[in-house]
UniProtKB/TrEMBL annotation:
Residues 97-187 form the N-acetyltransferase domain. InterPro entries: Acyl_CoA_acyltransferase, GNAT_dom. It comes from the Eukaryota. GO terms for molecular function: acyltransferase activity, transferring groups other than amino-acyl groups. It holds the Pfam family Acetyltransf_1. This is N-acetyltransferase domain-containing protein. It comes from Aureobasidium mustum.
Length: 209
């Protein structure tokens, strides 16, 4: 966004992906410098769109969910539980387990992030994170790394995780909440269902094999 993108820049990004045995994915928003789009057009294909959603938490007032889902904030002693649930939930997407574990470990290690679990009748069925950051005079809650175990999908787990984090964010004085999901996905549907609105979208460029 702030200047031309070179082949060396792109090479550095691709090198960072190599240890994890996945094809490089680059998310491009429209304000990016045109040189980036020109470079990506040579060896990359658009494989989808990532949508970013936002909500002013002063407007958030979601009714209680009438179900048996228990969503809790995890303590320091429960980080391994979060990591295992996150990996199991994302594994069905075909991503390498090593990469999924690294992403979950990074979330668990962040001092600005709260970790959440969702369970029914004592059975762990989902996990998610929420980072709270200061942006100028505002506090922003970033909802991310949402994961539902395969056997739990379609049971309201993701929606419950979203609602709980929004309530916690509002209680902790956050002004704005943001979340991201692939366009047309179930996650995107759930995000909009709890009240977040589309802010902008990015094209997902994946390197050709």
């Amino acid at each position: 966004m702030f200047g031309p993108v070179t082949k060396d820049d792109l090479y550095a990004i691709e090198e960072a992906y190599k240890p994890y045995d996945v094809q490089p994915e680059i998310y491009m928003c429209e304000p990016a410098d045109r040189s980036a789009f020109d470079l990506l057009s040579e060896h990359y294909t658009i494989t989808g769109h990532l949508c970013d959603y936002h909500m002013s938490l002063s407007d958030f007032d979601y009714p209680d969910m009438a179900n048996d889902i228990d969503v809790s904030i995890l303590g320091l002693n429960d980080h391994e539980t979060f990591i295992q649930a996150s990996v199991e939930g994302f594994r069905s997407n075909g991503r390498p387990e090593g990469l999924l574990k690294l992403l979950a470990e990074n979330a668990a290690a962040r001092p600005d992030t709260l970790l959440f679990s969702a369970s029914m009748h004592g059975e762990l069925l989902g996990a998610a994170g929420m980072a709270i950051i200061d942006v100028e005079d505002s506090k922003v809650a970033i909802l991310y790394i949402d994961s539902c175990l395969p056997r739990a999908r379609g049971r309201g787990i993701h929606k419950a995780l979203l609602v709980k984090r929004l309530r916690v964010a509002k209680d902790r004085g956050c002004d704005l909440a943001i979340a991201s999901a692939r366009e047309g996905s179930i996650s995107a549907h759930n995000i909009q269902k709890v009240g977040l609105k589309l802010a902008y979208g990015c094209k997902i460029y994946t390197k050709d094999r």
